[in-house]
From TrEMBL:
It comes from the Bacteria. It comes from Sphingomonas sabuli. Its EC number is 1.1.1.95. Pathway: Amino-acid biosynthesis; L-serine biosynthesis; L-serine from 3-phospho-D-glycerate: step 1/3. Pfam families: 2-Hacid_dh, 2-Hacid_dh_C, PGDH_inter. This is D-3-phosphoglycerate dehydrogenase. One of its GO terms (biological process) is L-serine biosynthetic process. Keywords: Amino-acid biosynthesis, NAD, Oxidoreductase, Serine biosynthesis.
Length: 539
């Protein structure tokens, strides 16, 4: 299994994690309790991070650390997982991580109540100008007549994005007797009814909302969603809260809106450029700011620190995958059951990959019997990694699906109902321009991978170490000639596995050897009488 890239499987040295942002000490304590070495180094520049990241298996971050493709390049081949103690992964180049086989995980719920509460606090702060009134009062001005607020009750709150945080904000807003409308293309009408929100288009939200709060991730689709044009379509006197991401609002346009009085107030926790030690909006009347404090409560920080450390440790030590944003989940309970299947899948993929070469057009993964009860995604990932390892050293089950897509390989997953000859079976069929090749394998004693059929011929073999795959005419004398040729090259035969289509027909030999089969020996084997194909294999 070396090199499969599944955490917990290939790690032999001490596992090491770097925590590069301020995190509750429980994160480091969990890593240490689970036998993982931890370094905590915050405030690193990208260059400083790149200089040391190559020594770590895991990197735990919040939003201050930017994890670029260049940092990941410096982190390879060791880094296996980046854990975000929080929600937004916009500071991590996720496609680059996927391409490099690095798992990215976040903690999707740990800080959502806290962030929703911050948004509600910002609503009140805007409605009653609390920060401005505080400043004036403490300056000894007693400007009772200057501050005249608005009530929240009865007003319409427009949510842009109604996922975890947006839903909690909606719930709290109902408690404040606000009407809630939401623009979220992925919000189902049923869920909107359940939440008691009006599902509306963005234009309607802009036209109706007295208050707007943003709760979407920063993506190519949401960047600048409150653009100059969108702001122009808002109600005069609108108040805007952004506790999601700075890039969602056109900051220059918001500044103009505040200055003309079209926008009565804006409360921002997040900024286009962070840390926002300067920003064109600063000093604009009606503006309230906090330094990305949305997730900063004791409770949320404990939650996310514990979650990220447990998740990363599960992956690094057991292969369990929870809350990954670039690879399907695999629970720490499932992982041990799947491990032998993934070993089998990888071996089958590797076998067929070595035989067919790189002109692969399609890969079908079929599971039957006990295997059909399991999560098929990791099995498929392992097959793809096995096939592609034949032409790429850096492939693992995380980046294999992306590499397959990049190469235009069609991947199909098939669950066969019922049981065949084996209580559990994984079959891999690889399509090339020349046709399809199928291999089948099972687990002996639920743990030992065994090949049971190769290209339609029953043969039982343990796929490991150095082997030779030989197709020949089933005729007397072949085995003797083969043994002699091997002996001439000092290559010791460890095991010999034979199968044939029918007596006197096509036969297959899978020969395990103690020493590698070099090109010269392979050539001599090909020259033996009746031999049709020889492929040296390694597992
Ligand atoms: N200020 C802070 O400290 C914090 C900020 N955040 C930010 O809040 C964001 C939202 O967090 P959650 O609610 O937990 O995420 P979520 O994934 O549960 O919800 C996001 C919602 O946005 C919707 N959405 C996606 N694209 C959209 C579009 N083009 N237009 C409208 N809606 C769209 C999705 O359908 C989803 O319902 C995070 O991505 C993060 O950037 C999260 C935690 C703390
Ligand atoms: O969880 C998120 O998305 C956040 O924005 C919180 O950021 P932080 O962990 O406070 O740097």
């Amino acid at each position: 299994m070396a090199g499969l890239g599944l955490g917990g499987i290939q790690v032999t040295n001490a596992v090491k994690v770097l925590i590069s942002d301020k995190m509750d000490p429980r994160a480091a304590a969990i890593f240490r309790d689970r036998g993982i070495e931890v370094d905590e180094k915050t405030g690193l520049s990208p260059e400083e991070l790149s200089a040391i990241i190559g020594d770590y298996d895991g990197l735990a971050v919040r939003s201050s650390t930017r994890v670029s493709a260049a940092v990941m390049d410096a982190a390879l081949p060791r880094l296996k997982v980046i854990g975000r103690a929080g929600i937004g992964v916009d500071t991590i180049d996720v496609p680059a991580a996927s391409a490099r086989g690095i798992v990215v995980m976040n903690t999707p719920f740990g800080n959502s109540i806290t962030t929703a509460e911050h948004a509600i606090a910002m609503l009140f702060a805007l409605a009653r100008e609390i920060p401005q009134a505080d400043q004036s009062t403490q300056a000894g001005k007693w400007e009772k007549n200057r501050f005249m607020g608005v009530e929240l009750a009865g007003k319409t709150l427009g949510l842009i994005g109604c996922g975890n945080i947006g839903s909690i904000v909606a719930d709290r807003a109902h408690g404040l007797k606000m009407k809630v409308a939401a623009f979220d293309p992925f919000l189902s009408p049923e869920r909107a009814v359940e939440l008691g929100v009006d599902k509306v288009e963005l234009d309607e939200l802009l036209a109706r909302a007295d208050f707007i709060t943003l709760h979407t991730p920063l993506t190519d689709q949401t960047r600048g969603i409150l653009s100059r044009e969108a702001l122009a379509r808002t109600k005069k006197g609108v108040r805007i809260v952004n506790c999601a991401r700075g890039g969602l609002i056109d900051e220059e346009a918001l500044k103009d809106g505040l200055e003309t009085g079209h926008v009565a107030g804006a409360a921002l926790d997040v900024f286009a450029k962070e840390p926002a030690t300067e920003n064109p909006l600063f000093g604009t009347p009606g503006l309230i700011c906090t330094p990305h404090l949305g997730a900063s409560t004791n409770e949320a920080q404990v939650n996310v620190a514990i979650q990220v450390a447990e998740q990363m440790a599960d992956y690094l030590l057991l292969g369990g995958i929870t809350n990954a944003v670039n690879v399907p989940s695999l629970s720490a309970e499932e992982a041990p059951r799947l491990k032998p299947y993934m070993a089998l899948a990888e071996k089958l993929g590797r076998l067929v990959g070595q035989v067919v070469g790189s002109e692969v057009r399609s890969i079908d993964v079929e599971v039957e019997g006990a295997a059909a009860e399991l999560n098929i995604k990791p099995i498929t990932g392992a097959v793809l990694a096995g096939v592609m390892r034949c032409w790429s050293d850096t492939v693992n089950m995380v980046n294999a699906p992306y590499l397959a897509k990049e190469r235009g390989i069609t991947v199909r997953e098939i669950r066969n109902d019922g049981e065949g000859d084996y209580h559990t079976l994984v079959a891999v069929t690889v399509g090339t321009a020349g046709g399809k090749r199928r291999v089948e394998g099972t687990l002996f004693g639920n743990k030992a991978p065994r090949l049971v059929k190769i290209f339609g011929i029953p043969v039982e073999a343990d796929l490991s170490g150095q082997m030779a795959y030989i197709v020949n005419d089933d005729a007397p004398g072949f085995i003797g000639a083969l043994g002699t040729a091997m002996g001439r090259h000092d290559v010791n035969i460890a095991t010999f596995n034979l199968g044939r289509r029918e007596e006197g027909g096509e036969a297959v030999a899978l020969v395990a050897v103690d020493d590698p089969i070099n090109a010269q020996l392979a050539g001599e084997l090909r020259d033996l009488s009746g031999v049709r194909e020889v492929v040296p294999l390694s597992f």
